[in-house]
């Protein structure tokens, strides 16, 4: 493909993408294909001779689209939202064209410098304390990780390296393997599965603390567990705190960068964090934290992948520093070399999409977007509250989900808190509006009533 053809095909592709997104309501959110469907549609080997663009382009509708779950259909209410916006898509095109690998400042200075700037912008939008940001001139600073799972893992590995370092200073003959086997990290029993995985990958015990009836972690439960672990000779060193709810009260937070009782607290606000750009949705965050992350790729119109993490950058980079000669450069130390801040060496120019989105929506546009989604979620909540026939039958919930998803007009997934199964209704797509929420409720209620009737019928047998 030469440049002239690229220009022509590029225009066609942009048209296709705009048509796809503008008409996405016409496609079912959930595809009806069976596993292995694609094998029937494609040859079992790559072509020997080059094919024509027209033939590849035609296969988007024939081969790909039948098996796509349309996350941006307004009736997609499953899992959690993933962001998508035209400015984000345009930035990714530019990032792909530049195609740099920004592992150090020298490997592409703009890639690093724009990231430094937009990470401070994001921190200020969320009103995070300055200490967490580059502009403090201190230990803070931000980095774009691919996902929240990586942010949690990086936090845990940094905390692990930090505690080993501290203990080694006290006792230079320390047996590292012995210390590693006694390290213990904590999260709540409601924590995201990525936290348990961070413990598995980081090879440390991850203890789940039981939450109260409001699914909140009580400070006293954590304290009791820490004290009893210390008495057994274990070494508590890390705790993960998730913020997954949007409060509806004007609250402000006052977190400080630092450790408390030698425990590194990592705050995971992957989903809810974007809402903190609205002062009225900020949670009550007090005390000390060493790292904080949220996903602009969930709820801030920045396309996947983009998880923003701010932290004690010195301790994080110390944990990951391996510095072979060929990666070094003469300006080292003046700007971050982001390869020390995350797991891979290579990194894409992801800050471009944050920059485009922040500039083209502005704080006001993004706040409006978040507030609209919160309003829609409350509309749905009111439908549920106003219907006194509504109750949840744990035993039939999976059948209910199957019925809703087989019907295909909306897409939901179930979840479980303690022993209660429930249906999760998430406002995901940027195009979802009030009518979609009403439609989902009517659809959902309808299936639910059939199942209630079935259940009552079964009970009378
Ligand atoms: C969605 C979510 C994650 C996982 O996000 P990834 O970026 O896909 O790793 C982790 N924690 C919380 C609280 C989440 O909501």
TrEMBL record:
<comment type="similarity">
    <text>Belongs to the group II decarboxylase family.</text>
</comment>
<keyword id="KW-0127">Catecholamine biosynthesis</keyword>
<dbReference type="InterPro" id="IPR002129">
    <property type="entry name" value="PyrdxlP-dep_de-COase"/>
</dbReference>
<dbReference type="InterPro" id="IPR010977">
    <property type="entry name" value="Aromatic_deC"/>
</dbReference>
<protein>
    <recommendedName>
        <fullName>Aromatic-L-amino-acid decarboxylase</fullName>
        <ecNumber>4.1.1.28</ecNumber>
    </recommendedName>
</protein>
<keyword id="KW-0663">Pyridoxal phosphate</keyword>
<dbReference type="InterPro" id="IPR015424">
    <property type="entry name" value="PyrdxlP-dep_Trfase"/>
</dbReference>
<keyword id="KW-0210">Decarboxylase</keyword>
<dbReference type="Pfam" id="PF00282">
    <property type="entry name" value="Pyridoxal_deC"/>
</dbReference>
<keyword id="KW-0456">Lyase</keyword>
<comment type="subunit">
    <text>Homodimer.</text>
</comment>
<dbReference type="InterPro" id="IPR015422">
    <property type="entry name" value="PyrdxlP-dep_Trfase_small"/>
</dbReference>
<dbReference type="InterPro" id="IPR015421">
    <property type="entry name" value="PyrdxlP-dep_Trfase_major"/>
</dbReference>
């Amino acid at each position: 493909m030469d440049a002239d053809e690229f220009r022509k095909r590029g225009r066609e592709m942009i048209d296709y993408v705009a048509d796809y997104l503008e008409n996405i309501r016409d496609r079912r959110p959930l595809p009806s294909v069976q596993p292995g469907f694609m094998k029937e549609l494609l040859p079992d080997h790559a072509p020997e001779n080059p094919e024509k663009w027209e033939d590849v382009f035609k296969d988007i509708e024939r081969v790909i689209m039948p098996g796509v779950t349309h996350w941006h259909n307004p009736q997609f209410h499953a899992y959690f939202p993933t962001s998508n916006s035209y400015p984000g898509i345009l930035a990714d095109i530019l990032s792909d064209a530049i195609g740099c690998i920004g592992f150090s400042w020298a490997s592409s200075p703009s890639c690093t410098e724009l990231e430094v700037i937009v990470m401070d912008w994001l921190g200020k939008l969320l009103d995070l304390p300055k200490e967490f940001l580059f502009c403090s001139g201190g230990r803070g600073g931000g980095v774009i990780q691919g996902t929240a799972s990586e942010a949690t893992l990086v936090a845990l590995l940094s905390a692990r390296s930090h505690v080993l370092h501290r203990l080694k200073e006290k006792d230079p003959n320390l047996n590292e393997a012995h210390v590693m086997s006694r390290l213990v990290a904590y999260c709540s029993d409601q924590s995201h599965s990525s936290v348990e995985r961070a413990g598995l990958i980081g090879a440390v015990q991850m203890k789940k603390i039981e939450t109260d009836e409001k699914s909140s972690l009580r400070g006293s439960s954590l304290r009791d567990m820490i004290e009893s672990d210390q008495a057994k000779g274990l070494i508590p060193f890390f705790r993960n705190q998730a913020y997954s709810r949007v409060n509806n009260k004007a609250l402000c937070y006052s977190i400080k960068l630092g450790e408390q009782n030698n425990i590194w607290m990592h705050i995971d606000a992957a989903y809810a964090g974007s809402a903190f750009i609205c002062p009225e949705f900020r949670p009550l965050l007090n005390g000390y934290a060493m790292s904080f992350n949220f996903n602009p790729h969930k709820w801030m119109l920045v396309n996947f992948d983009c998880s923003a993490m701010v932290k004690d950058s010195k301790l994080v980079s110390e944990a990951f520093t391996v510095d072979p000669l060929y990666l070094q450069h003469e300006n080292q130390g003046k700007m971050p070399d982001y390869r020390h801040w995350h797991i891979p060496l290579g990194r894409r120019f992801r800050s471009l999409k944050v920059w485009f989105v922040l500039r083209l929506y502005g704080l006001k546009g993004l706040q409006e977007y978040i507030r609209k989604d919160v309003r829609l979620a409350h509309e749905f909540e009111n439908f549920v509250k106003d219907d006194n026939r509504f109750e949840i039958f744990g035993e039939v919930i999976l059948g209910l989900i199957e019925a809703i998803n087989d019907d295909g007009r909306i897409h939901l997934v179930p979840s479980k808190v303690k022993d209660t199964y429930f249906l999760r209704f998430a406002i995901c797509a940027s195009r979802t509006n009030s009518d979609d929420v009403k439609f989902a409720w009517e659809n959902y209620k309808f299936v639910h009533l059939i199942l209630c009737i079935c259940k009552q019928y079964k009970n009378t047998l």
